[in-house]
Every structure is written in C-alpha cells, then in structure tokens.
Design a protein that fits this description.
Largest sheet of chain A: 4 strands, mixed
Number of strands of chain B: 10
Organism (chain A): Paracoccus zhejiangensis
Cofactor (chain A): FAD
Helix content of chain A: 40-55%
Distance between the termini of chain B: 29 Å
Distance between the termini of chain A: 32 Å
Order of helices and strands of chain B: HHHHHEEEEEEEEHEEHHHH
CATH superfamily of the largest domain in chain A: Butyryl-CoA Dehydrogenase, subunit A, domain 3
Number of helices of chain B: 10
Oligomer: heterodimer
Family (chain A): Belongs to the acyl-CoA dehydrogenase family.
Protein name (chain A): Pimeloyl-CoA dehydrogenase large subunit
Keywords (chain A): FAD, Flavoprotein, Oxidoreductase, Plasmid
Largest sheet of chain B: 4 strands, mixed
C-alpha cells in the first residue's frame, strides 16, 4: 500500500496551484468565496483563461482540443480549483455533451460543435427532466416528429440550469411513441434561438432564478442535429450521466466549505470566546471533518481503480450520497455558526429586500442562501433516494 | 388530566384560521381579538396563558403569516404590562400602538449581553436584528441598567431595515444620545421572553404540521415509475418518522405551554426550544427532499414554511444554545 500521490501527480498539483495563483482574478475568487452569483460574463471570462492554457476540457482527449488528463489529474485540478475559490467550469458542454459527441456524434457534429464549446461561442444547457419525468427520466414526453429534413418538437423541459444564458440545448425527445419507454427516445441538439422556444425562469428557495422551464411549440430542428441513431438516445443519455458523475463526491467543494466554516467559527463569539472553542460546536465540526477525511479516501480509492482501467460502477452512487450529505452538513453548521445573522434574507424574490445590505459579516448572508440552495444537492443528478436504490440493487443484489 | 383547549380557545383558533385563509392582515387579526387573547385579564386582555399563546401561534404558523403579534404583543405588550405601563400595553395589544423590542447587539450571538448605555435620560448604543422597528410607534431598549422606552422618530435614533427569512423585516438600530424613559429592570423580560419562545415554538409546530400535510398529499398524487411515489415503502417509512418527530414537537410545545407560569419554566423553555429547533430543521429538510425539485421552488407553498422553520431555530437562541441552557438548568 502506498497512499501518496506519484511524483508526477505532485508536480502537476504544484503547477495547477501556481497557475491559479497567477491567473485567477481576485475579483472572481472573492465572489466565489462569498458564494455570490457569478454573471454570465464572469463565467465566460474564467472559461477563456482556462481555454487559453488548454485546461478547459481536462476530460477530453487531446485530439479534440482537451487536456487528456488522467482521472487523478482531473481530481487534482478540481480540488485545487475549489480550494482557490475558482469559478466552477460549466458542466453542460465540457463534462456532459462533449464526451457524447466524441463517442456517438458524427464527424460533422464534432467539427461543428466541439470547438465552439471550448472557445465560448456556445453555452449549452441540459434538456432532460420534464414535469412528469424527474427520477423516472425514461418517461419523457416531449415529442420530435420527422417532417422532411426537419423534426418538429413539442413539449416542455424543466429544471434547466442556467438555461437563461444558453444558446443551445441538448434534449431527450420521444421519436417513437409506440416503443417501450427507453426505446423510443432520441438525443437532439436544438438551437435555443429557434422560433417556438420560450424560457421561463423558476425562482428557487434562496431567491435565485438558477433554473428554468423551457417550452417547445412546433420548433423546427434540422434532422442533421440528431446525435447517433434515432431511438437510441437512452444509451447516449446513460453514457452522459456516467460523465456527469465525475467529481460527484465534491471533495474540493467540501474541503473549501470546511475551511470557510472554520474561519467563521474563529471569528464568531459565543459566551465571550471564539465559537470554535465551544465544546458542542467543536464536536459537530470534528465529526464532519472526520467524515470528510474518510470520504476523500473513498473517492481516491475509486479514482485509483479507474486509473487502473476498471469501469466505475454503482460505487459512484455511494460517493454521491455521502458527498452530498457531508456538503449539506457543512452548509447546516455554517448556518448555525453565523447564529442570528442567518435570519437576514437578501432575496431577489422578496420585494424591497435589497434596499439595504444585510447585517453581519458578508459570510452570514451567504450562509443562509447556500444552505437553502444546496438542498438541491440531494435532489439533482439522480436523487439520493435513486442512488440508494442503485446501491441496494447493483451492489447488494437486493 | 386534560390536554385540550377551552371552547373559547378553539373558536378563536378556528376564526383566526378562516381569516388568514382569506388573506386577513394585521388589522383583521386585531379585530378578532388575537392581540387581547395574548394578554392576561389583569393586563386588560382575555387570555395570556400558555394554551392561549399556543393556539394563536400554531394557527399563524400553519398559514406562514407575517404579523406583529409576536414582537409587538407577546414581547412588547408583555414587557409593558409587567412594567406597569398599562395604557401603552393595551394600545399594543389592540393594534393601536406598535412596539419593537431591541434586545440583541451586533456580534452578541444569543448571549443577551448588552453595552447600550444610559446617561441621564439619553441612550447610546447599537441594537441588531430588531423585528418590526420600521413600523413601530415605540421601541423598548435593553441597556446595561435595565429597560427603556424610546418613541419612534426620537432624536438620534437611526434605523436600517432589511428582509428576514420568515417574510418579516428587521432593523439595525443606532442610538446616539436618544431621549428615553426608564421603565424597569431587565428581570421584567423573564416571563415575556419565555412567552415569546413558546410563541415561536408553537408557530414552528403549525408550520411543521402544514409542511407534513403538504408532503403527504404530494406523495399521494405525484406519479413516477407508473405509480404514486407514496406507494414506495422507503418513502412511507420516511413519512412515518416525520410524523413521529412532529408528535414529539407537539408534546414539547404542550410541556412549555403548561409550565410557562411554574417554577420549572426555565428548564422547559430550554428543553422545548432545543427540541423544536432540531425537529424544525429535520422537517424542513425532509419535506423539501420528499418533494424533489418542486420543493426547491419559491412558487410552491412549502418554501415560506421551510424558511419559517429555519428562522424559528435562529430566534431567541438555536437548538445548541438551548441544549447548553438545559444542561445548566438541570445541573442547578
């Protein structure tokens, strides 16, 4: 057993750290650290910096303009980025669509779309969930009917994250209504500027319009935008979901969140002493840290297996489950740590809420928002109930 | 032994609920006598006991209603009445006057330490997270030497308001040589503060009950994999746990309501607020989770209930703070 990173990986970590120190604008890292919402331009700015270095698509092979990193290198990059409070790389084009096009797309589609993901010309969003198809994704009802050289698309997608910024959406659509649920689905690329598309924001608990509903009313989509074969979309969708699960443990986010929590707990006073010295609080903090240390090793053990050529299986469900539980526990303890400051609620959803800055340290307002927003962690990407089902079925054979 | 309510209490609860359903505002609640039901007969009201407070606030919590009843009446009028300020107390209870109570100071967490200083008849200091101060006719201010009454618009009184998680508003208050009148010792706070904690807990109980009902309905109607998700045993067990925890919360609120005027009050305040804070968080998190995405949205009626439950934990000391107080009170 040798649990240390190889000299090459250690050198890579040092290189990433140096790069982040040199090129990550303080303006952006400060907003990320305070969990403030980034503008579209700010997200694109960071993408451009990474793309210039050739590091935007660490998971893509070099032939497609990616960095061709190993699973361990990608983990190191994600972890260092989170610790430096770098903006998150948008997953929709890089982590989700890119790998699908590389494996199942035509040469024309690869040449047309992949460079535009890297250079920021396209902002993709994901058209999977529908009002009646959440955990039960295979029950999608949005239809695409062939009409000459086009498909005509009708229906509704929902929970479309940052869809308000997107100019393209990849969709699961039903092309054969007579087939069994999974067998009549196709994977279609749709230009969001097409006539007949309406985007309606959904305001979340924390007051942010982070997700959207997307309505399709007789939208014409060129048939050349079909990925792979008609009615084989479920295979591609599942392939995409396995890529969505990389970095699912969120070790970097948890580590950065824990460090922020400790900073707050040192600054807050309880009974005349720093809160971090309060035995009850210190015990709660320690339990989370111990859980995180173990989970980080679970994550590395699975990465090492992947590096040794094993295909990641249902174990990633355990990472999703435990990873989100730990991050939510950190959000909860941060909310507790700021004490009564958590009561203030600066929200775009509440009229007149933004006429004054909330009281207390800037971390305080962020604590409530982050707590509320991160309730989504155990719901999206396959809810934690779905993950438990997978663990019981695939790993235990129950 | 009787754990029930009087006919009057039950009737008031029912008419409050109907009024709130029709979107009744603070004035409509005053008309029903909600404020006077929170005051004892000696103080000019017709209630004021633990069960009265329980009935009114549990009903308000179910409706996620933002009202001045907690801060202006239970706390404000309660203090004024204890201080012998009968006229202003009655005006607050009937809704003619609005009282904001300025206890906490920036960075003091839940400790209740204050440094606001009285010199002659003038106060100087900073107060934090004061609910309802923007609409108040009077402020009660806790200073190092006791409680003081300040009139709205007084010289040197600065207010900076912002929204709260529970739908109300609070204010950062600055006092710079502000004219004030001393109304009594800080010990006058004891009973009104215990009553306010009962009110917050009863309010949270109402919000939890409503959140669990919404979730039960949702599990019966939402279909995935061709059947209602409530038919999955894993989710049935989660609902059973939720219901059992809410039953615990109910009994904890009853415990405090029954002991608010006994010698064992402090221990019950700590026990009930600690348990309620813990269960409120659990109910908020579980009901959101069991709804899935829809539970995350502002549009759905769970959102204000969930935020109200979070806010309940952070007011007047969170579950950990009261756990420590319970340990201290039990050791004494």
């Amino acid at each position: 057993m040798d649990m240390s990173f190889s000299p090459d990986d250690q050198a890579f970590r040092a290189e990433v750290r140096q790069f982040l120190q040199d090129r990550l604008p303080k303006r952006l890292s400060e907003k990320v650290r305070l969990q403030q919402e980034l503008t579209k331009a700010e997200i694109e700015e960071w993408h451009a910096v990474l793309n210039e270095k050739g590091w935007l698509a660490g998971n893509w092979p070099v032939e497609f303009g990616g960095a061709g990193w190993t699973a361990i290198q990608r983990h190191i990059f994600d972890e260092e980025s989170a610790l430096a409070s770098a903006p998150r790389i948008l997953p929709f084009g890089i982590a989700m669509l890119g790998p699908v096009l590389q494996k199942f797309g035509s040469k024309e589609q690869q040449d047309r779309f992949l460079p535009r993901i890297l250079n920021g010309q396209d902002w993709w969003c994901q058209g999977y969930s529908e009002p009646g198809a959440g955990s039960d994704l295979a029950s999608v009802k949005t239809t695409a009917v062939r009409d000459g050289d086009d498909y005509i698309v009708n229906g509704q997608k929902t929970w479309t994250t940052l869809g308000q910024h997107a100019n393209w959406i990849f969709c699961l659509v039903r092309t054969d209504p007579t087939a069994k649920a999974q067998e009549g689905i196709s994977f279609l690329l749709i230009d969001m500027t097409s006539p007949g598309i309406t985007v309606r924001p959904i305001v979340l608990l924390d007051g942010t319009p982070e997700v959207n509903e997307v309505f399709f009313d007789d939208v014409r989509v060129p048939a050349e935008n079909l990925v792979g074969e008609e009615n084989k979309g479920w295979t591609y969708a599942k392939y995409l979901l396995t890529h969505e699960r990389t970095n699912i443990a969120g070790v970097g986010f948890a580590t950065a969140g824990l460090a922020a929590l400790k900073r707050i707990a040192r600054a807050q006073q309880a009974h005349g002493k720093p809160l971090i010295e309060n035995p009850l609080f210190a015990a709660r903090l320690a339990e989370i840290e111990i859980d995180l240390m173990a989970m980080a090793t679970t994550n590395l053990r699975m990465l090492a297996q992947a590096a040794a050529g094993q295909v990641p299986g249902a174990e990633s469900s355990m990472l999703k489950l435990k990873g989100t539980q730990i991050r939510q526990a950190i959000n909860d303890l941060t909310r507790r740590a700021v004490g009564p400051w958590a009561l203030a609620f600066p929200s775009e959803a509440v009229e007149g809420a933004n006429d004054h800055l909330p009281p207390g340290p800037p971390e305080a307002a962020a604590a409530t928002r982050a707590y509320l927003n991160n309730r989504k962690l155990s719901i999206y990407g396959g809810s934690n109930e779905i993950q438990r089902g997978i663990i019981a079925k695939s790993l235990l054979g129950l | 032994m009787d754990f029930g309510f009087t006919d009057e209490q039950t009737m008031l609860g029912e008419s409050l609920a109907r009024t709130l359903e029709r979107g009744g505002d603070a004035a409509a609640l005053s008309e029903l006598g909600a404020g006077l039901a929170l005051m004892t007969e000696e103080a000019g009201g017709f209630g004021g006991t633990g069960p009265d407070i329980l009935m009114v606030f549990r009903t308000l919590g179910r409706a996620a209603a933002a009202t001045p009843l907690l801060d202006s009446v239970v706390l404000g009028a309660g203090i004024l009445s204890a201080a012998g300020e009968a006229d202003l107390a009655e005006a607050a209870a009937s809704g003619e006057a609005r009282i904001a109570v300025a206890l906490d100071e920036p960075g003091q967490r839940y400790d209740g330490n204050v440094s606001t200083l009285a010199e002659g008849e003038r106060l100087t200091g900073e107060k934090s997270l004061v609910p309802g101060a923007e609409d108040a006719t009077h402020l009660i201010v806790k200073a190092t030497d006791g409680l003081w009454l300040v009139e709205a618009g007084a010289e040197g009184l600065g207010l900076r308001g912002y929204a709260l998680m529970d739908g109300g508003r609070a204010t950062e208050v600055t006092l710079k040589g502000t004219p004030a009148r001393r109304i009594g010792d800080a010990a006058l706070l004891d009973r009104p503060l215990a009553a306010a904690i009962l009110a917050v807990c009863a309010d949270a109980l109402g919000a939890m009950e409503k959140a669990v009902e919404l979730t039960t309905d949702y599990l019966k109607t939402r279909k995935q994999f061709g059947r209602p998700i409530g038919s999955f045993q894993a989710l049935q067990h989660r609902m059973a746990d939720l219901l059992t925890e809410v039953e615990q919360a109910r009994s904890a609120v009853w415990n405090l309501a029954g002991n608010i005027d006994t010698a064992d009050r402090d221990r019950h305040v700590a026990a009930t607020k600690s348990l309620l804070g813990r269960v409120a968080l659990y109910v908020a998190e579980e009901t959101i989770q069991l709804h899935g995405g829809i539970g995350m949205t502002e549009e759905y009626e769970l959102a204000p209930l969930a935020r109200r439950l979070l806010a309940a934990d952070a007011r007047f000391g969170d579950s950990d703070h009261h756990l420590e107080r319970f340990i201290a009170a039990s050791a004494a």
